[in-house]
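hey m, so remember when u said the tokens were messed up on ur end? i reran from scratch. heres the input so u can diff it against urs
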Amino acid sequence: MSNIYIHHRIACRPLQWSTTAETIQAEAAARIGDAGGTLYGIWRSQIGLPRDTITAVTVWPDTDSAIRMGDLLHDGMESVETVELDLMSPTLRPATADAPVRQGNYAFRWFETPPENFEEFLDLCEATWPGFESSYDSQVIGLWRVEGSDDGPIRTLLMTRRPNLAMWERSKIPADAAEQEVRKKLNRRYELCDWTTVYTTTLITAEDEQDTARWT
């Protein structure tokens, strides 16, 4: 059975996002660990989310554990105003629950895709990712399907890592024939969905370097 992931969108009190992230790392990660969960990562807003919103992802052995224990990550934290949770199952990636550890520009792109288009959507993702990764020094971290979206459009979250924001912009403008082919497939994927949105972040839990830029 595949692991279940939870996407936590955590809206913090003004100017408390950093304190909240530190508390999650120092205390809450161990708390969910005792309950069978794992902290996959914490991200801060770069472009597209409010300054005081952080994103966390946790991993659980099954849906029941995720539902019962997921709130342990942020329960009782006075610095937290509201939390939105999405339970997710991995599709093509990730193959393991190994957490991302390299700093970079992490894009969170959400899709809503009609069920009749979803198989082609997955096929295009699988076909496009190798060229995308080699052309832009980038990595596809995962594509998760949101639980509970069986009726109506299928919701998915695609997380990608680029080395920096400049490469995120660079990846939108193909420079040669190979990149044009990648972009053609990506454009087709966008045409298959009913709705999509993206925001970018940096990784608070990175092991190589910390992002100290003032983005928002």
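this time it looks ok to me. The two ends are 40 Å apart (CA to CA). if urs says something different then somethings off w ur setup not the seq
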